[in-house]
Amino acid sequence: MSTALHITECGLPGIKGIPYGIHMCHFYESAADLRAVLAPYFAAGLRNNERCIWIAAEPLGATLAKIAAQNAGLDVEAAMRKGSLTILDHAEWYAEEGTLKGDEIVKVWLEEESRALAQGYSGLRITGNVTFLTPATWDLFMDYEQGLNGALEGRRIVTLCTYRLGQVGAAELLDVSRRHHCTLDHPDQGWQILSHRL
Predict the structure, then answer these.
(1) 69-91 pLDDT, tens per residue?
(2) How far apart are CA 17 and CA 155, in angstroms?
(3) What is the pTM of this model?
């Protein structure tokens, strides 16, 4: 089987192919930073015939996420009608009565991948912005992130989790980095991948 079948486009300048099954994280400062990474990330997914799911939270909730995608040249309404793009606020996806359900969320992602492949998509591309986390839910969510690493192995899923720098200290940065395959970074010379486990 061709190696190319296991590679997809990231969408960010300076980063070429990324493997399916990758679980990436990104630390950002502002809504503009978040738009700069997520709009091209999803544009690439739609170009590659991937089903795209954007789980939004402040400072870029679902309404603003749709506007950001439209401003990046995506036909958001058409993609959403077709089912190739879903944009939801985090409360609609992650939580029920204030309780995070890590194993159930992983199961949903795998079911979404199976559904996408059955519908003729090349794979599944997802993101979640996690500004909704609190100190009380942090450890539970880190367990979910850890479990997702193993669950994605061999799957046609690309995942990008975004964390706001103002909400995390040094210990939390380490927590997040250890539970992802790599970190997307944007220094002055352009986008790059800081690998942890690839």
Answers:
(1) 999 899 999 999 999 999 999 88
(2) 16
(3) 0.92
